[in-house]
Specification:
The complex is a heterodimer of chains A (303) and B (298). Chain A has 303 residues and is mainly α. Helices cover 71% and strands 0% of the residues of chain A. Chain A contains 12 helices and no strands. With 298 residues, chain B is an alpha/beta fold. Helix content of chain B is 36%, strand content 24%. In chain B, a hairpin with a 2-residue loop joins strand 4 and strand 5. In chain B, helix 4 packs across helix 5 and helix 5 packs across helix 7. The longest helix of chain B has 21 residues. Classes of the chains: A mainly alpha (303), B alpha/beta (298).
């Protein structure tokens, strides 16, 4: 047989390897189209927001905008120093509070808690639920228990930090548990079989193996906290203060609060200031998420 | 090579003296299924051991004596409780929630399952190598040094690491890359690293739970050679699915089998026969052993 004859034969013999039907091909193409459309909708939405904000805000961006304090009298010279500093302080307080509490809780739940005990299962379910509670509820909790009530701190930086910590704590616990669970049981067995105690095993094998996952999760949780407005509004963060908090017990503001204040201001001059502040906030978010991605790619343990 | 052996032998002698001081022999003899006239000084007396996972009995009535400086193989079909049993010998079953061990496991005259015994101390003396190589995600050096560090061994860590790698016949391959990550080694090297790691804390028993099942025949051969060397200084218990392996390396063999309970829901393992390996493979007493070793079942 010549090559052409073989080719002709191959075309006619389709019973062993039947060709895909027209229907399945159409379904394949249609499904791809739906996926591309979904992605396009998301990107278009994001692009529209970015474009809109950048158009208003880019002209405002300058070093003075970052270092000036907000001003009622001269809107065009208003800046975000107090809001930016307040946000950075809040993030620092959150990190200090959330990392030890979240990791310790995760270690307890993964390594010590006996799942057959009802109270351990109850703690787990509650933490899952808390992660889904709307942030405004944490604001009410902060107002009732931290600003007033038992702790009665007043509308201070520490109260804001604690409120945001409570807000992200469940998320940090859940991510830290996942990172700890990703360390294979064979590593724990290997360590214990060498005569290491449970504590040595956790401290020297499990946590180092989970550290990249925990760090990534903490950063992502903080990047959620950094944009939170509702709880800070409720506990009474200051709007447009002309000073930075000097201690944990000073009044404070944060970027989302400053943005909220400016966008609701009757003076339209502040619209461009709000847009500029949004750009700064988004830049911080991009940096934080990039660090998270870098940590994950660079240090995550492959088992 | 000769000097290495004498060095190891000297160390081993010192260790055994220590062992005898620390574990005074008990006056109560443990029940054993000891074959007549064969057994050297036993290091373990196991008496009527049963293991439960919750309500389910995984193994029942295991009684045997394990000799010092010999290789004892545990063979049998899947699910017959070999791994469950070997984990009784260094209290690794403690880690499984709901696991309960009954009976006696007497080691150097002390029952491992009394309240005063600290499982951490047991595991310092009785090393273990697992089915799948489980190196830590650290350098080769730190893998070996981890055990000695956590148990607070005194001495020059470089020497401890070198000595452990030499005893596991891994030194020549690794001496130029001690600081590289152990995950970069081949599967067979990783398993020998795990053996070296277990030897670094100077145990006197080495438990091996199917150490070669994830390895190719050449790596398997090297580990078997290594076991033959190590039994000069250590007592070795090995679980294996590979009957040829048991026949090649072991001195004593225990054949486990599994039976269903009346409701046919639970499988309980027990020892059918325990004897000198040659006899087990050529002239076993029990028909079930014969069927298994000749390949009629399992």
């Amino acid at each position: 047989m010549t090559g052409a004859q073989i080719a002709a034969r191959a075309r006619t013999r389709s019973t062993v390897l039947p060709r895909p039907s027209t229907g399945s091909r159409v379904a394949d193409v249609a499904f791809r189209a739906v996926m591309y459309l979904s992605i396009a909708v998301g990107i278009a939405g994001l692009g529209a927001i970015l474009f809109d904000v950048a158009r208003d805000g880019l002209p405002r961006l300058s070093w003075e905008f970052v270092t000036n304090f907000p001003s009622r009298i001269i809107p065009e010279r208003s800046g975000i120093q107090s809001a930016l500093v307040g946000t950075l302080y809040l993030m620092a307080i959150c990190t200090v509070l959330v990392v030890p509490l979240g990791v310790a809780t995760a270690v307890y739940l993964e390594e010590y808690a006996d799942r057959r005990r009802w109270w351990n299962r109850m703690i787990e379910v509650n933490i899952q639920n808390l992660a889904a509670v709307p942030s405004v509820v944490y604001g009410i909790l902060g107002l009732a228990f931290i600003v007033r009530g038992p702790l009665s701190m007043g509308r201070v930086l520490l109260a804001g930090g604690i409120t945001l910590s409570l807000l992200v704590l469940p998320v940090v616990i859940i991510v830290a548990r996942e990172a700890i669970r990703a360390v294979p049981p064979s590593i724990r067995e290997g360590s214990l079989a060498l005569g290491a105690t449970k504590w040595q095993t956790i401290w020297k094998q499990v946590l180092p193996g989970a550290i990249a996952g925990i760090a990534t999760g903490v950063i992502l949780a903080l990047s959620r906290a950094i944009g939170e407005t509702a709880p800070l509004l409720i506990i009474g963060a200051a709007v447009s203060p002309r000073f930075n908090p000097g201690s944990l017990f000073d009044s404070f503001t944060a970027l989302p609060i400053q943005i909220f204040g400016w966008t609701t201001d009757a003076d339209r001059e502040f619209v461009s200031a709000a847009a500029g502040a949004i750009l700064v906030l988004m830049a911080i978010l991009v940096v934080m998420n990039s660090i998270a991605i870098f940590l994950r790619n660079r240090y995550e343990q492959k088992w | 090579m000769p000097e290495r052996l004498t060095e190891a032998a000297a160390e081993s002698a010192g260790r055994n003296e220590n062992a005898d001081r620390r574990f005074a022999p008990s006056n109560t003899p443990a029940p054993t299924a000891r074959p007549e006239g064969r057994m050297q000084e036993p290091i373990f007396h196991v008496g009527d051991v049963q293991v439960f996972y919750g309500e389910h009995r995984a193994i029942r009535d295991v009684s045997l004596a394990i000799a010092r400086n010999e290789i004892t193989a545990l063979i049998g079909p899947s699910g017959c409780g070999k791994s469950t049993f070997i984990r009784c010998l260094n209290r690794m079953n403690d880690l499984i929630p709901g696991a309960r061990v009954e009976g006696q496991v007497v080691y150097h005259g002390e029952d491992l399952y009394t309240d005063e015994i600290d499982p951490v101390q047991v595991r310092k003396r009785i090393g273990m190598v697992f089915q799948k190589p489980n190196p830590f995600p650290k350098s080769i050096y730190d893998n070996i040094a981890f055990g000695p560090r956590v148990i607070g061994m005194k001495g020059d860590m470089d020497e401890i690491v070198e000595s452990a790698l030499r005893r596991a016949a891994l030194w020549e391959e690794t001496k130029d890359r001690l600081k590289t990550n152990a995950f970069g080694m081949s599967g067979g090297q990783q398993q020998r690293l795990c053996i070296a790691r277990a030897l670094a804390t100077q145990p006197d028993v080495l438990l091996m739970d199917e150490p070669c099942s994830a390895l190719d025949p050449i790596s398997t051969g090297r580990i078997e050679d290594l076991m033959m060397q190590l039994k000069e200084d250590y007592s070795i218990v090995i679980v294996t699915h590979n009957m040829q392996q048991a026949a090649r390396v072991s001195d004593m063999t225990a054949f486990f089998t599994v039976e269903l309970d009346d409701s046919a829901k639970h499988r309980t393992g027990h020892v059918v026969e325990y004897d000198v390996t040659d006899k087990m493979f050529t002239n076993p007493e029990d028909k079930r052993t014969e069927d298994y070793v000749t390949g009629k079942f399992g």
